[in-house]
Design a protein that fits this description.
Largest sheet: 7 strands, mixed
Helix content: 40-55%
Distance between the termini: 37 Å
Order of helices and strands: EHHEEEHEHEHHHEHHHHHHHHH
Strand content: 5-15%
Number of helices: 16
Strand order of the largest sheet: 4-3-2-5-1-6-7
Structural class: alpha/beta
Amino acid sequence: MTILQAGVPKSGNYWLYSIIKNILASAGNEHRSYIQQHPIQERAKNWQLSFAGQSEMDFLTIEGGRCYCRLSGVFREEITDIDDYIEQCSQVWTHSPLNPLSQSIIPKFDKIIYIIRDPRDVAISYSKFAFTEHKLKNGAPHYEQSPETYLGNRIEEMTRQWVQHVGGYLKYRNELNIYPVFYERLLHSFDSELEGLLTYLKIELSSEEIAKIKHNVAFKTMKQQSPKHLRQGSSGQWQDKLSDRQQQKVVQVAAPMLDLLGYSTTARNIPDLPENINPEVLNNAIATSERSALDQLQRLYHFINSQRSIEAKANLAKDWSLSKIKRLV
């Protein structure tokens, strides 16, 4: 069995990876890994990456009509035979949104698990992650001055990307047999969520094995292993961290998707996905996040009048232009 796990960055992906890894190990499933057999391992094992064991995890990126195996922002190599790659893996992690190529690749996996987290907490978490030593050293430059300015300048765009990413996977939930998991529900009712995962994976474990998994993936345990990557392990921080204006920006872009997923727009709560999603409601939620011509003009206005330095604005404009050219060619 080969499992693909997907999700927007900073949605609890590392936690989900650890849960699945422990489930497979407890079930006695053979662990297979493409990256662990790759010649890069000799060097990668000495790299300081985001969290413990990252150099030994199989990350898949699907973009620009190609597939890549990668290790954070340090290493990336094109995969020329995706079937062979999948055959060599037991658990693969991706942040890639659904696109025409991924729609043909994802069905090759036996199981697909998608993790969802409140976009307001995602934005806060990512704005802090953007200033970690590893991200500043190995990621693309973002030209922001602090996590606060990063959040203020980018929360609307991060929310749009979240809606598109989540909506894309939900749209093909039944067709691709995707199993959605909520970060907040894992926090609130871990036992029942773990039971649901086991049912989806068709794996039975003893009470002792389940207790061991719970210990291994507890926040305290994982925090000790990766103190720089894990911060709080909580939900609803957006109520205290986001200004009223920032909260309003999120609601303007994502209200229909938040409502569909059961997220309150005003208070911390536990989300819940309906068993049957009305396609029209989902399409409307996705469409709400798409930029109109007026949105584009407003984005340009806010960019020009943002508190960024002239140099930062020039660099961002240049990077945006280059990325757009790459997409066109």
